[in-house]
């Protein structure tokens, strides 16, 4: 009897042992996700994400720009670095990628990113709180399919000196005025107040004339180069009208800019102090300026002595599209990743409503906006001008990252355009003569790239 009892206990022990082994065998090993990301960006979320997702282990893959940074600006070297980056991604095979716009466009068009269309339509993603403009932009650049999500966006609007305008009984700017209306308002300011400009174009080491002219042209979808036919197209009535309008603004004092060299900080980096970048507006010497959401903090820090307001950037009245918005920090999943569901968990966490709310203040202080519309914590009236215009497919973010025109030509054209504008200012040429010569000279330069 005693022996049977012992055998019974042995049987139970064996059974329990077998069950325990079976359970151990069923324990799933953590999935390791390779994340292509900058160290600073990765450090903001890696620990918190790992703590909330025990079944996922993150391993950072450093981008080539971090391991082998470039010094200075060289269009040809930038092109080489772009190709090196794509090659490194191909070799290292990260599961999740933090991408810049040109990388995102290239990889999406080559089918190397996984579609996120079905994932964002899930109820738990809550698409209604994510910026529709960002989704539009990311689909535009991803061949009408969504391959990535950005956690932040950049945009600009018109800040204005409300005290100055009211004092002189000049109407306040309105959202989505045309550039013609905006500069007409600026002209009224300069005509009413000696030494006060209507619009401050900002600070740079050379004139910002072409930056203003090209920006106005973008609002109407004007192109200064027909990339398909390899033809420069700046000598047209539409462009001439814009050049004349900006020229008149510079001559009358309605438009003013600050030209000076950058300072150098202790780290050897060039920069402008806020009083250099925005000084004429901060001191009340200009009525309007185009700037990002972060300018609000500068106004507060500088303790400006006037009341200010903000409205949407100027746009073409027939199109009503903004040109300054662009996505920041685009996260995507490699089409080759065997862990797409786990990779999505990371992206979903990065752009979750909870995380966006926690980071909203910091993002805005750096000039950006959270991608989640409801993350702005009561800032609706301030935020609205930056996001109310749908983004233009021909906006600034596209111009910065064009792959159908060589970067070196874009830079050369900009220098030529500014040089010809200075000739207009000193009366050497008429607008028609300047654009004719600019087109001929730019065409000769562009022919080198055919």
Automatic annotation (TrEMBL):
Query: Keyword set for this entry?
Result: Cell membrane, Lipoprotein, Membrane, Palmitate, Signal
- Keyword check for Lipoprotein: yes
Establish whether keyword Kinase is in the entry.
Answer: no
The domain of life is Bacteria
Q: Which organism is it from?
A: Cohnella terricola
Q: What is this protein called?
A: Extracellular solute-binding protein
Q: Which Pfam families match?
A: SBP_bac_8
């Amino acid at each position: 009897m005693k022996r049977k009892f012992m055998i019974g206990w042995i049987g139970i022990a064996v059974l329990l042992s077998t069950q325990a082994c079976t359970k151990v065998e069923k324990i799933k090993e953590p999935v390791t996700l390779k994340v292509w990301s900058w160290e600073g960006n990765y450090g903001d979320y890696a620990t918190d994400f790992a703590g909330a997702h025990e079944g996922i282990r993150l391993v950072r893959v450093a981008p080539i720009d971090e391991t082998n940074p470039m010094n200075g600006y060289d269009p040809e070297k930038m092109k080489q670095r772009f190709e090196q980056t794509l090659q490194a991604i191909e070799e290292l095979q990260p599961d999740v990628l933090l991408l810049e716009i040109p990388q995102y466009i290239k990889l999406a068009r080559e089918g190397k990113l996984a579609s996120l269309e079905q994932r964002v339509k899930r109820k738990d993603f809550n698409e209604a709180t994510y910026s529709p403009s960002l989704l539009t932009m990311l689909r535009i650049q991803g061949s009408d399919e969504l391959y990535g999500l950005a956690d932040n966006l950049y945009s600009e609007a018109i800040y204005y000196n409300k005290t100055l305008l009211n004092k002189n009984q000049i109407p306040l700017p309105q959202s989505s005025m045309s550039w013609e209306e905006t500069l007409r308002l600026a002209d009224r300011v300069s005509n009413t107040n000696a030494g006060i400009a209507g619009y401050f174009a900002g600070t740079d080491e050379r004139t910002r004339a072409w930056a203003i002219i090209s920006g106005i042209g973008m609002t109407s979808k004007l192109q200064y180069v027909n990339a398909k036919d390899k033809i420069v197209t700046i000598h047209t009535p539409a462009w001439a009208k814009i050049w004349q309008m900006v020229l008149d603004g510079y001559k009358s004092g309605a438009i003013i800019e600050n030209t000076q060299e950058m300072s150098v900080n202790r780290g050897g980096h060039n920069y402008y102090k806020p009083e250099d970048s925005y000084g004429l507006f901060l001191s009340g010497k200009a009525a309007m300026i185009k700037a990002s959401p972060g300018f609000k903090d500068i106004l507060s820090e500088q303790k400006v002595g006037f009341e200010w307001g903000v409205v949407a950037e100027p746009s073409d009245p027939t199109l009503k599209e903004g040109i300054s918005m662009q996505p920041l920090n685009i996260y995507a999943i490699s089409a080759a990743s065997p862990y797409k569901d786990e990779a999505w968990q990371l992206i979903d966490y990065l752009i979750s409503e909870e995380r966006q709310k926690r980071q909203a203040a910091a993002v805005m202080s750096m000039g950006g906006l959270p991608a989640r519309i409801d993350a702005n914590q009561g800032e609706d009236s301030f935020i609205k001008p930056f996001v109310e215009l749908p983004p233009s497919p021909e906006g600034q973010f596209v111009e910065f990252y064009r792959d159908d025109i060589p970067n070196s030509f874009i830079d050369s054209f900009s220098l030529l355009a500014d040089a010809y504008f200075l000739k207009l200012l000193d009366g050497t040429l008429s607008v028609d003569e300047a654009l004719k010569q600019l087109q001929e000279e730019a065409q000769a330069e562009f022919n080198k790239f055919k």
